[in-house]
Fold this sequence. Notes:
- The structure is a homodimer.
- By secondary structure, chain A is α+β, with helices and mostly antiparallel strands.
- Chain A has two domains: 1-88, Arc Repressor Mutant, subunit A; 89-149, 2-Layer Sandwich (Dna Ligase, domain 1), CATH 3.30.1490.
- Helices cover 41% and strands 22% of the residues of chain A.
- A three-stranded antiparallel sheet of chain A has the order 1-3-2.
- In chain A, a hairpin with a 5-residue loop joins strand 4 and strand 5 (102-104).
- The termini of chain A are far apart.
- The A-B interface holds A 73, 75, 77, 94, 96-97, 103, 105, 107, 109-110, 112-114, 116-118, 120-137, 140, 143, 147 and B 73, 75, 77, 94, 96-97, 103, 105, 107, 109-110, 112-114, 116-118, 120-137, 140, 143, 147.
- Strand 6 (124-135) of chain A pairs antiparallel with strand 6 (124-135) of chain B.
- Chain A binds a DNA duplex through helix 4.
Amino acid sequence: MQKMFTDVRALLKEKNLRLTPQREAVLKILLDCEEHLTAEDIYDRTRAEYPEIGLATIYRALELFEELGLVSKLDFGDGGRRYEPALGKDHHHLICMDCGQIAEFNEDLLGQLHETIARESGFLILNHSLRFFGYCSKCKDKHKHEVES
Amino acid sequence: MQKMFTDVRALLKEKNLRLTPQREAVLKILLDCEEHLTAEDIYDRTRAEYPEIGLATIYRALELFEELGLVSKLDFGDGGRRYEPALGKDHHHLICMDCGQIAEFNEDLLGQLHETIARESGFLILNHSLRFFGYCSKCKDKHKHEVES
DNA sequence: TTGCGTGCAAAGCCTTTGCAACGGT
DNA sequence: ACCGTTGCAAAGGCTTTGCACGCAA
């Protein structure tokens, strides 16, 4: 983990950029917490360590990390954009339309689909996002009547 | 297609709502054009027929149609929300990160994945969104150097 | 000294809301 | 007349930008 920051620092240095305490704080929060945080969430948590930090700094850090491929911007239908560490992995989410719970799952069955699509479309596919929308086990009983057939 | 509007009119009538010319225009534009339109796009096109229409009306119509399940709100990472007709089908998109082209593809291999996920997670899955991000055949040469390994 | 990074405040965008007026039933 | 619907304008929420200052190289 500490190596992670060394790497990031080197990566930034190559581009004449710096890993400031603020940026490190933002990154640490994203890496530590395996959730999907909004900019505001990150702002709140960062202020615990840096009370003077500005929201704009959060956005600028997130933008930077996104360009570096360290962080991914996500967008579930709720309007709020969220961020998560992009560790080279693709995103697989289960989104409960009632309580808003967002779970993740791992699945490798997509590999062959990936290849098929790439071959047929000519796209160079770098990553993907697969989201299943529905109701989680806690909420689904409430919505049984909505599901026809 | 004409039957479509009759159906929608009936569906609305059940709820004491009306299929006004404005709403019909919005729906027609979405159904006609198999693209992913922003609210602004729809606004512009609708004004050809209804120059006095307001953007708020577009949003309200889209919200209504979404509640009725006729239209889906999409969100590609570009910040702009887009809409497409929801004909009960799931969404499979290929998004070019360079030129922004968004293509669709059909794929049934997801069926078994769907079942596996549902069984293991307990989720009641209603639909899903699968997006592959990368570069389309026209743009990919420009980005070859970015792709490591 | 140069120019990257920051905080603050202001500006921007897109979307939603309030409100008076309109129109179908 | 009632109430859903509309257009306009204003308000909102989130994100970006401008700017002067601070600070590391």
